[in-house]
């Protein structure tokens, strides 16, 4: 199992926010958030597994980083020749292009994860959910851009099977080729959802109450001697897994993709640690399903579940790395 980061170094040479013109940071981030949320919803409607969904989202993240770098380079050249640029028109063009890219990445993610879906299903959902449509009601005010709520208006019916459909189908296929060339055919995506299961099983979390001298995972005895260590019960273990998956879902929907730059083993351990911190506050989340879908709110005002001290060292994960990843995840889920 490859354990590299979902966004490896060759795809993070440019940061989506840092490499944008300052006046366009919120607008570009808003477009990215809107499309990621629509991709997530379309994957739910197509009943995709977590890996197919995550693959499509990560491929879009990779493309967006390269695309915004090119947009910035073009903007720098044009601002000298044509200082006044119609921002609304530019954003419409970007939304239309990235909307097709989002549909192509969803289709490509299905194929890469061996969960193929008909291209017609992808086209129907991209039209129904408005992947490429620009909503003129978006006034781009500061209050609107900083709002956490994202409204998705569904079309009343899928597009008819006419000439326009066949043109759209050709566009999706050509856009898929464009995505592959932009990413230099690097479509391998490592999946932290699967890694969470492997970590939980490997370390034996969920074995209940154990009475023995508390030791660090590295084998050294703790200075405070002997005490009871509360490991996760099977029920708590299941809940930690679901909460960790919800956290990873939130990380994949973050427009900046800040948490996706960490190796998947670090990201998985960080998600487990954050989930364990919040498990006593939220033992069960309403409005969520068994696949870890649904909103997650972190609250660590109560004592966390007693996992062994520095348990991640058993997996050769450095403490400073997991702390940095945990900080990124907390910032995302506390937005």
Task: Write up this protein.
The protein is mainly α and about 325 residues long. Helix content is about 50%, strand content about 5%. It has ten helices and two strands; from the N terminus they run αααααααββααα. It has a two-stranded antiparallel ribbon.
- State the low-pLDDT regions, or none: 13-19, 141-145, 207-230, 279-288, 295-303
Number of helices: 10
Question: Averaged pLDDT, please?
Answer: 77
Q: Describe the sheet with the most strands.
A: 2 strands, antiparallel
DSSP strand count: 2
Compute the CA-based radius of gyration: 22 Å
Question: H/E order of the elements?
Answer: HHHHHHHEEHHH
Topology:
Elements (H helix, E strand, L loop, with lengths): L24 H21 L4 H32 L5 H26 L6 H10 L13 H4 L17 H20 L9 H12 L5 E7 L5 E10 L3 H20 L10 H15 L40 H15 L2
Antiparallel strand pairs: 1-2
Helix pairs in contact: 1-2, 1-3, 2-3, 3-4, 3-6, 7-8, 7-9, 8-9, 9-10
Short characterization:
With 335 residues, the chain is mainly alpha-helical.
């Amino acid at each position: 199992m490859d354990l590299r980061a979902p966004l490896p170094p060759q795809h993070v040479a440019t940061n989506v926010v840092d490499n944008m013109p300052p006046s366009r940071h919120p607008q570009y981030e808003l477009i990215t958030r809107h499309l990621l949320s629509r991709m997530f919803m379309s994957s739910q409607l197509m009943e995709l597994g977590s890996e197919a969904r995550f693959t499509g989202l990560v491929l879009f993240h990779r493309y967006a980083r390269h695309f915004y770098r090119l947009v910035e380079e073009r903007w720098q050249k044009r601002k000298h020749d044509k200082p006044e640029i119609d921002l609304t028109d530019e954003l419409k063009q970007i939304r239309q292009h990235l909307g097709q890219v989002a549909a192509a990445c969803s289709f490509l993610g299905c194929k890469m994860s061996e969960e193929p879906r008909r291209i017609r299903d992808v086209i129907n959902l991209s039209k129904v959910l408005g992947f490429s449509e620009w909503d003129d009601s978006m006034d781009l005010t500061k209050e609107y851009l900083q709002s956490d709520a994202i409204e998705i208006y569904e079309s009343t019916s899928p597009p008819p099977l006419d000439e326009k459909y066949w043109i759209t189908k050709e566009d999706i296929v050509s856009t898929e080729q464009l995505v592959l060339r932009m990413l230099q055919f690097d479509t391998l995506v490592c999946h932290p959802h699967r890694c969470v299961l492997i970590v939980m099983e490997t370390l034996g979390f969920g074995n209940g109450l154990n009475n023995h001298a508390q030791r660090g995972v590295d084998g050294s005895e703790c200075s405070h001697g002997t005490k009871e260590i509360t490991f996760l019960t099977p029920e708590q273990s299941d809940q930690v897994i679901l909460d960790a998956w919800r956290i990873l879902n939130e990380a994949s929907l973050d427009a900046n993709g800040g948490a996706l730059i960490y190796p998947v083993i670090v990201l998985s351990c960080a998600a487990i640690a954050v989930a364990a911190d919040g498990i006593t506050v939220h033992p069960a989340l309403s409005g969520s399903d068994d696949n870890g879908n649904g909103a997650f709110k972190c609250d660590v005002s109560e004592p966390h579940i007693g996992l062994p001290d520095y348990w991640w060292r058993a997996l050769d994960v450095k403490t400073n790395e997991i702390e940095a990843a945990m900080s990124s995840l907390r910032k995302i889920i506390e937005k």
